[in-house]
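Worked example 3. Consider a protein that binds zinc ion.
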Amino acid sequence: MDVPTNAVDVLRRVFGYDAFRGEQQKIIEHVIGGGDALVLMPTGGGKSLCYQIPALVRDGVGVVISPLIALMQDQVDALTALGVRAGFLNSSQQLEDRRAVEKAFLTGELDLLYLAPEALAGGTSSTMRLLERGRISLFAIDEAHCVSQWGHDFRPDYLALSMLHERWPDVPRIALTATATSRTRADIATRLKLDDAPHFVASFDRPNIRYRIAPKAEPRKQLLELLRTEHPGEAGIVYCLSRASVEKVADFLVSQGIPALPYHAGLDSRTRAANQSRFLREDGLVMVATIAFGMGIDKPDVRFVAHLDLPKSVEGYYQETGRAGRDGLPSTAWLAYGLQDVVQQRKMIDGSDGDLAHRRMLATHLDAMLALCETVECRRSQLLQYFGQEGGACGNCDTCLEPPESWDGTVPAQKLLSTVVRLDRERGQKFGAGQAIDILLGRRTEKVTRFRHDELSVFGIGEDLSEPQWRGVVRQLLAQGLLAVEGEYGVLALTDKSGPVLSRERAVMMRREPERTKRSASRSGG
Ligand code: ADP
Ligand code: ZN
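Given these inputs, the predicted complex is written out as structure tokens:
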């Protein structure tokens, strides 16, 4: 069988496209050949074809595991329209429909079967028994970051998917995600038992999106200014943290003559569906929404995505801003960020139900997001670095276009890194940013005296900066990859880039911290 020709043939005949994009062909050939794969591609990158084509070429039914139950009907309809035999099984379904899909699966009259992960949880469900009686061509595990506690969207049901490998050792598995740092990626591979699978990592760059992060002063006025001067009459999404602010901002925009609709989980499902379909169909509507909105939304001409509140993670930010400019035309990602956002999110983390490890993970995500907000370097290259890609200054983000005021933070960086080196020498003991800062500030806390850290040469050498400034230094070093946090306890560690800073071969520039007085804190409440 001439596999590649076959794949190209299916691409043209069934999907009507001329050529594969990026890594698609390599991935597809690999899976058709029976190999496992871990695929990282940004939203809109074309992940679906990576399992749909192998499922059509290989014998048997391709089983797709997806958490997006609400989208299964749409996905199946779209495939059916192309002449692909697809079905889904989920809890929202009529018994009759279910039976029909089960029968089609068993008789091999399906090409693709979509399932929710909970259908397989426990490994003893009726769905499991059904799968064992059919012939499966491959397993596609969509939104694979859901298996990782390090991701931003952990779903316990995904953990059960590790058994696919044991029960069907000969069936290839392809895990796909649009959002994974190198740590999450490693975690996905371990938990899904994909240790030997090659990783296919597509570029995460979205060159047509201009990233901008502004200090939050009067967020609604700032937003209005943006819409009126740069995006009049254009479609966009405005993300807010709470349902109440969604409603208020939507009302405000309407009162200013801008057509806007609200979307959040507190609206009844009919209103939600109606607003969503208006946004997709009509031109120039602004959707004001919580992050409940957007998964799987494929509207090519979204010209801007604005965040009025700080996203909880870089992954979330990247995914939400990625909904702008899918058509490749110039688009804006704009975020207003103030001290109050940080205070509020720290509070939410402290008050969250999870255990300590979970809270630390949330804090790490938040720190990375803050670092992106505070960088003096190109936003895009920092964003790409976060996803493990290198890149120079882009010329299409706010820091490239209007370089911010910066200061030479080399000396504080050396002080902090030297402290980390000394703490690292204490075998068996692990310390985080708090301890390092206490030492630099010369504080004789209980924990400092207990470990005799007041006897270290670095004790008290950082009194020229305040605690918040030191936190800024830590965040910015993390952001620049000159420092790392490891493990569930947030232990600080050097990276392979730290050496040149310690040996004075490399300077470290930092963004000037905005004046964070009480007055600006209360004004930036938004
Ligand atoms: P993802 O799941 O990665 O977000 P999709 O699989 O939904 O992305 O693909 C995004 C869009 O790109 C879809 O409209 C899809 O039909 C289109 N697409 C994917 N691959 C190709 C290709 N090789 N040529 C042209 N269009 C493609
Ligand atoms: Zn840039």
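Take a moment to read the result before moving on. The first strand starts at residue 37 and ends at 40. Residues 8 and 19 are 7 Å apart (CA to CA).
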